[in-house]
Amino acid sequence: MSTTATTPATGAERGAPDGTLLHMHGVDMHFKTGVHAVDSVDLAVRRGEFVSVVGPSGCGKSTLLRIAAGLETRTGGRMDVSTDAIGYVFQDPTLLPWRTVMGNVELCTQLQHQPKEVRRKKAQAAIEMVGLKGFEGNYPSQLSGGMRMRASLARALTLDPELFLFDEPFGAIDEITRERLNGELLKIFREQRFAGVFVTHSIAEAVFLSTRVVVMSARPGRIVGEFEVPFDPHREPSLRADAAFARLTGEVGECLRAAA
Predict the structure, then answer these.
(1) Cα dihedral 254, 260, 61, 185 sign
(2) Residue pLDDT, tens place only, 193-243
(3) DSSP tag of 94
């Protein structure tokens, strides 16, 4: 489900003047099973940046995201988070089947004990933002996969996140719907200007959405490449057919193949 995580910041990075909301310094993760998932990761994400993370399966991408959200405790290094307003969207929309779209979108603000009129207003605004107006009374079983993911995204938006974490939310959706959701997420990012971290297996999706793409190695995951994305924030689907887009996706792909 979409959630909020409260991860107190430490050190000088809280309220960093350069707008940094997430800063990892040499972060390691060793699980009790003996798996070394993440190794010495340095990553900074500022307000207004959308950073996608790609890497081989099992390289620790999702683990890194869970550490950022405070859902896992790193075993080494330091992490500074300069906000308590964190939104998290999982791979599965995890909507409650007995709640309508409105009820599901209101859930996080309800758990925060926000007044009913406040959470209803926030939920309605988020529903309209993701294109679900008119479906407020529908149940998850009455929605397509893409619509369920929109509802999950709306639920996280009600938290007004400054740091938004996405764990491959569109991976199980057909390509056409996925591209449409990419465009809608990019529009929301332009309007909200949060700091975003987006895990994906799709290089094209990473380049289309991002201001920067980070490539991780095979486990234990290390950052082995970073690519600035130079395209205008107002991106149309036709960008995917542009020669410059193809060159950049090729460079990221080459780095990823070497990392695997």
Answers:
(1) positive
(2) 999 999 999 999 999 999 999 999 999 999 999 999 999 989 999 999 999
(3) -
Structural tokens at position 172:
């199980």
Helices (H), the chain: 61-69, 101-111, 116-129, 145-157, 175-192, 203-209, 243-259
Domain ranges of the chain: 3-81+178-189+205-260
Alpha carbon distance 134, 228 (integer Å): 39
> Residue 11 is which amino acid?
G
Residue type, 19: G
**CATH domain 3-81+178-189+205-260 topology:** Rossmann fold (3.40.50)
* Residues paired with residue 78 on neighbouring β-strands, in sequence order: 25
Question: 10 Å Cβ neighbour count for 163?
Answer: 24
Question: How is the beta sheet containing 76-81 ordered, strand by strand?
Answer: 36-46, 20-30, 76-81
Tell me the C-alpha distance between 59 and 38, whole Å.
7
Stated as kind and residue range, the H or E segment containing 52 is strand 50-54
Whole-number Å distance between alpha carbons of 42 and 203: 21
CA distance 223 to 42: 8
Q: What's the one-letter identity of residue 156?
A: A
Each residue's pLDDT tens digit, 6-47? 333 333 334 455 789 999 999 999 999 999 999 999 999 999
Q: How far is CA 32 from the centre of its chain?
A: 26
